[in-house]
Amino acid sequence: MVAAEFSQRDLEGERACIERQLREAAARAAEGEQIRENHQRFEELERVLPSVSESLVLCARLVEHDADITRFSSELAAAMAARDSAAAAVADLRGRATACEGRAQNAGRETERLRERIDRDRRSLALADEVATLERKLRDIPTDLDVRLAAAEQSVREYGEQQRAAGERRSAAAGLLKAAEKRRRDFDSVTIGAECSRCGQPVSEEHARRERAELDDEVQCHRTERDATTHDETTATAALTAATTERDQLANVVRERNRVRDRFHDQRGVLAAQGICADAAVLRAEIEEHTRQAEGFDRAAADARGEKQEAEAAAAGQEATREQADARVATLTLRLTTATTRQATDAGRMDTLLDLLPSAWRDRVPAMTDADLHRELTDLDQLRTSDIRAQFLKLTEDATRRNEWGLRLTALDSAIEQVPTEARCSVPSAESLLKTTGERLASAKADHQSALGRNEQFRGHAERRRTLDEQHRALDLDCRLHDELADLLGAQRLQRDLVRTAEREIVRYANDTVRNLSRGDLTIELDDADDGPDRAFALRVRRAENPTPIGVVFLSGSQKFRVAVAVALAIGRFASRQARPLESVIIDEGFGSLDRDGLQAMGDELRNLQQCHSLRRLILVSHQEEFVARFPVGYRLEPGDGGTTAVRFRRECGAEV
């Protein structure tokens, strides 16, 4: 039923369309002559007006080109005249500048000749003056200078011997004083009843007082002797300083005398070789005269150079004018050429366009104005707006299609008669049914699009969930790896093994040193086992006569010092092997706890360390004179009125420490 209704509606709609087209064709046939005339005019205007419009523009441009050519030709002639005038002026000014340059060069040569003569005379005068001055200096120098210098050098040698002798006496007195003070301090610790270290008898109160008094007297005696020898050394040092100063002053005078005497003989020989015997006054008069002449030539050269500069400046100005004129000529030539070329181009284009136009339009164009062109363009726009081309096309097609439309109408009437009566419905009913169906279809499409959007959103959520799961698994794996590495590299695993390995290597280095320092008596080892508590450098020491190890805290002061020096040097050797060689070692004090043999061993070991490990410098700080005396270079710190002073000393023994 529905299919039949739609078929009937379509057939009736097509019949109505064909009837409407037949009516439109009849109307066009009534206006056929006018449509053909309008179409012909439209085709003609559309084909001709672009060329006509361009031709009018070219006519105006040709008039402008004629005016430009006339103007550029006149300006070019004036610019060429200005250029020729500037070129002539430049040539004249450059000739004047060349002449001035010649005068300046001649004056300069004369000046140079005179100045050479002046310099030669001045050198001769300077030689004569210098010889006279040197002769006066030699007369002023004492004749007994060599005798006085020999006496001063003898005084320096005598005072030097006195200073060295006084210094040796002071050092001996200081050593005896220190030994006496040590015996006095040692006796203070002796208890009543103990054996006396001096006489071997038991110590009593009276014996102790007597011994202390004797030791006090001995200390006082040595102190007095030290002070006296110190005063003698100071006096000898002052005398030596004064004698040395006097000797140096006399030596300087002797050197100056010898220099003046040698210079006098040399310069006098030069004067004799040159044959200079002119009076100084005559030389000075000649120098003044030549100087005045040179100044005159200088002024003449300066004047010539000034004229040359003025001529060159004027030539430069004229050259700039000529260059400007050249640029103006070039510019105008280019403009004239451009205008001529454009005129020829536009004239050729104008001829081409006129040849393309119909003969009627070809005669009209030269007399046409912009108003005439505007009217023709307005007619073309009106014809284009009326869609005359489509009307003409339909008019030409109407004759052919009118028969087709008649046959189609007959077929449509026959098809409509065949539609059953019960299946026929009105057009409004069919349109209402079609509208309802379209609305339901649009609603279904909207629901479908919404479902597609939600599905795409769910897909995005699923993709994000998958990405987050992968990231979580990767981070969890990294966390487990880090935990495992932390456990393997921690204080109880690799770090502990590295520390233990470093400790064993350092102890091995330290043993090499401590055996030498203790003459084989001490050996260092680690106190902790591999699985013991994690304490760095938990050391213990074995002695040669007692294999049982003891802690470092139970060692004597000298033994602790030896162990400390050995461990410090071993740490330096271990660290330098890892990075850069160990170059310097500083030891501050600690030598007071060593006896004579310990000091001897410490000094020998420090020298061995310096030689074996290529140490550049060992720096030691000590109050032990006997220990310090073993090393060649050092500084003695002494208190003074202005603060502590450092006195450098050097001995001829061994390498520098």
Taking the alpha carbons of the first and last residues, their distance comes to: 127 Å
Q: Give me the number of helical elements.
A: 13
Structural class computed from helices and strand pairing: mainly alpha
Strand content: 5-15%
Series of secondary-structure elements, N-terminal to C-terminal: HHHHHHHHHHEEEHEHEHEE
Strand order of the largest sheet: 1-2-3
Which segments are poorly predicted (pLDDT under 50) over 5 or more consecutive residues? 1-6, 653-657
Report the C-alpha radius of gyration, rounded: 64 Å
Give a quick account of the main beta sheet: strands, pairing sense, barrel closure: 3 strands, antiparallel
Helix content: over 70%
